[in-house]
Model the fold of this input.
Amino acid sequence: MELAVVGRSEFVTGFRLAGVRKIFEVNDGELEPIVHKILEDREVGILVMHGDDLNKLPETLRNTIDDSVEPTVVTLGGSGQSSNLREKIKQSVGVDLWK
Done:
């Protein structure tokens, strides 16, 4: 399983420097089709995106992302509601690893 990162140049640069191979640098108009493509990619286990980018997606796609176990979608930063990483791990693994 691989880690994929989607977002603006400023967001993905650190991941690129860290050696993440699946980097998708996008503008607003390209975001939705790229997210669909990543969700269908069987090699991607975790998708990381900025919280503000998640809020720009249509509600149906956001609901799909919220229900997605594989890949697990983790949002970082942003002014909206962020995903709770603990809940995402619990959803994907089936147990609370912090207990």
Remarks:
- The radius of gyration is 13 Å.
- The first helix runs from residue 9 to 17.
